[in-house]
Specification:
single chain; mainly alpha; Serine Threonine Protein Phosphatase 5, Tetratricopeptide repeat; 25 helices
């Protein structure tokens, strides 16, 4: 029976044509959420009255006027001074009481600066709900209050109102004379966390367009995540090209490019990016295996084998042979088979089997011997696989093929009758039984 008559379907060919196992879930898509550190203490010290942006004097003056408490009565200024003094002393409870009593006694004198000051005490006391209430009122009274929006974003985020926090940060960014890029980054990440990925893409695009020089790779990482979740990979791709152009010597940039390409199932681009990553820094063991997988998917089995070998020469991950090394040996052997290097494939499988016999290893050796037309050796290999697992239907089917090639029709019928009891092999086995006779 020639090769065209063997009927080796995709089921049997998968193990002998150099195709790597599919990428695992953790490799096939990158959807990690990025929680912002929200170290807003660093941002709060930004003094909007002392900006570096010389092109927006009106905005600086506007924020300075709000911060100055312009229009406050003498009694309000006195209460504000007393509250701030208590805050300087670390007595936030006392500061909150002073400001609350003033606002309760003089509701007609509510002022965004007073409410902002009260919110600062609530923040220090970890009373986020009260801080959120006060800041919401403050920006309602003065929608142009930059620092009010900034701290409202923090309060909303702490209360897990992530989408609302993101929009507050966008307003804060627009009203901060320096247009601090970190604020816009927090906005994008908050919107992503708040399940608004399309809006996050818009915000992060703006961030990278307005602050390309000095852009942090974390910003691109957030954009990749947002673009993937929004299903808008093609929209963010130009900015990823920008990232690689601006950070050509940064291995992390190429790693991000790799993850983006994998998420798009563009395995050729993924191979390029991870290969370049390996030029810039040593690949980890897992990354070498991933790169081998990608080269296998791209039908470059020789390169796949090289990276598998490189990974297997590194210190292991502590996995048992059953769950770890056996799978890696199968990958390596499949790659050598795909490269038509039967000698190396056979050596790989024999080494693996000497460590620990598995059904997969014996089955792959059977495929190799069948392709090499050593049907006796193939029959023994598939037989050993079935000894290890009597329910291995494909093994019985392949033994039937081997027996036919050896012109042992009685033996072939026994194996094919057994194979016909398994749904996955029934049709093929019955077809062959009709040809070898009863």
């Amino acid at each position: 029976m020639d090769g065209g008559e063997t009927g080796m379907t995709s089921e049997s060919a998968t193990g002998c044509c150099g195709q790597a196992p599919p990428l695992t879930k953790e490799h096939s898509i990158w959807k990690k959420r990025i929680a912002p550190s929200l170290l807003l203490g660093l941002l709060i010290v930004i003094n909007p009255m002392v900006g570096t942006a010389q092109d927006e004097p009106d905005l600086q003056e506007e924020q300075a006027a709000i911060e100055s408490g312009e229009g406050l009565s003498a009694r309000a200024k006195k209460a504000l001074f007393r509250a701030r003094s208590r805050q300087d002393e670390g007595d936030f409870q006392g500061a909150a009481r002073i400001m609350s009593e003033f606002l309760e006694g003089h509701p007609d004198r509510e002022n965004p600066l007073l409410l902002f000051n009260l919110a600062l005490s609530h923040f220090a006391l970890e009373e986020n709900s009260l801080a959120y209430r006060d800041l919401s009122k403050a920006v309602e009274l003065e929608p142009r209050y930059g620092r009010g929006w900034l701290r409202l974003g923090e309060a909303a985020y702490n209360l897990e109102k992530h989408a609302e926090a993101g929009e507050a940060f966008v307003k804060a960014y627009d009203l901060t004379p320096e247009h601090t890029p970190e604020i816009l980054y927090y906005a994008g990440v908050s919107l992503l966390t708040g399940e608004k990925p399309e809006r996050a893409v818009t915000v992060l695009e703006r961030l990278l367009e307005e602050h390309r020089e000095g852009a942090d790779l974390d910003w691109y990482q957030a954009l990749i995540s947002a673009g993937s979740e929004a299903g808008q990979a093609s929209r963010v791709e130009p900015l990823l090209d920008q990232m690689l152009a601006d950070n050509a010597s940064e291995p992390r940039a190429w790693e991000l490019g790799y993850r983006f390409a994998v998420a798009r199932e563009d395995y050729r681009a993924a191979a390029v990016c991870l290969t370049i990553t390996g030029y810039l820094r040593p690949l980890t063991r897992d990354e070498s295996i991933q790169l081998g997988d990608i080269y296998a998917v791209n039908s470059v089995p020789l390169q796949a084998a090289r990276y598998y070998e490189k990974a297997m020469a590194m210190p292991g991950t502590g996995e048992s042979v059953e769950t770890g090394r056996a799978s890696e040996f199968e990958r390596l052997a499949s790659a050598w088979l795909g490269a038509h290097d039967y000698a190396r494939a056979r050596g790989t499988l024999q080494t693996a089997i000497s460590e620990k016999e598995t059904v997969g290893l014996w089955s792959l050796l059977g495929d190799l011997e069948y392709l090499d037309q050593d049907y006796e050796a193939a029959l023994k290999a598939f037989g050993r696989a079935c000894d290890l697992d009597q329910e291995f239907g494909r093994g019985w089917l392949m033994m039937g093929y081997c027996a036919i090639e050896l012109d042992r029709r009685g033996e072939a019928r026994r194996h094919l009758n057994k194979a016909a009891t398994y749904p996955g092999q029934e049709a093929g086995a019955r077809s062959l039984l009709g040809r070898v006779g009863s």
